[in-house]
Amino acid sequence: MKDAFGIPQSLLVLGGTSEIALATARRLVARRTRTVWLAGRPSPALDGAAEQLRGLGAEVRTVAFDALDPESHEAVLGKVFAEGDVDLVLLAFGILGDQAHDEREPLNAVRVAQTNYTGAVSAGLVSARALQAQGHGSLVVLSSVAGERARRANFIYGSSKAGLDAFAQGLGDALHGTGVHVMVVRPGFVRSRMTAGMDEAPLATTPEAVATAIELGLRRRSETVWVPGALRVVMSALRHLPRAVFRRLPV
């Protein structure tokens, strides 16, 4: 069970090699979290992440999980919840894709959408049902400011995150009053492996800063978290710009 300050004893990470997720896991383990499940495709990176968290004192187990195989989600995640209560599920998987290439190769664009949206809908609903059955817990969904308004430079990725964000908000409303808390996290440009080599956007942040914001959001039982917080104002302004003006911006 979570303590009075919202720090979970147990954590399930969907997307076990995500830099944001692992920064969050390290931060929570340093506070109170003792049991961590890392769900992802079996790989040396997943095993290495587990060893890193074990070195911090957590009991860590890995589970084979594929966002692109929604038919397996109920069985895979069901086994995790059968081991005991899970206080926090962190839905952190996702791919950026290559906009220019994916526009020419529609199947690649579909893979971005299936990973970021379809896979998340499946895993999110399975996790939400399990959390509701145990009567408590939080589901944290990593969205993105890219979902606030489609940009020419990344509208495939942005549209998938827009769908995920809307889904997570609706799920939070559906679960209100059940004891299950849903929190949507909207980071801006995050310096990570995913964005390596890309031109850095204004108000760029780090996995560690996102992890700090997630912990604070859990303590406050926030429903939406922007990272950094100033992006809330920036994106509100961009969202309401006339389309003809928005189209001319270097975004």
Q: Number of DSSP helices?
A: 9
- Note the beta-strand portion: 15-25%
Percent range for helical residues? 40-55%
Radius of gyration: 18 Å
Distance between the termini: 43 Å
Lateral strand order in the biggest sheet: 3-2-1-4-5-6-7
H/E series, N to C?
EHEHEHEHHEHEHEHH
Biggest sheet character: 7 strands, parallel
Strand tally: 7
Shape: globular
Instruction: Give the integer mean of the pLDDT values.
Output: 92
Notes on the protein architecture:
- Helices cover 47% and strands 16% of the residues.
- The protein is built from nine helices and seven strands.
- It has helices spanning 19-31, 44-54, 73-82, 99-104, 106-134, 155-175, 207-220, 231-239, 243-248; strands spanning 10-14, 35-40, 59-64, 88-91, 137-142, 180-187, 224-227.
- It has a seven-stranded parallel β-sheet with strand order 3-2-1-4-5-6-7, sandwiched between helices.
List keywords for this structure.
about 250 residues; alpha/beta; seven-stranded parallel beta sheet; 9 helices
What is the topological layout?
Blueprint: E1 10-14, H1 19-31, E2 35-40, H2 44-54, E3 59-64, H3 73-82, E4 88-91, H4 99-104, H5 106-134, E5 137-142, H6 155-175, E6 180-187, H7 207-220, E7 224-227, H8 231-239, H9 243-248
Parallel strand pairs: 1-2, 1-4, 2-3, 4-5, 5-6, 6-7
Helix pairs in contact: 1-7, 3-5, 5-6
Please summarize what this structure is.
By secondary structure, the protein is an alpha/beta fold. The chain contains nine helices and seven strands. The termini are far apart.
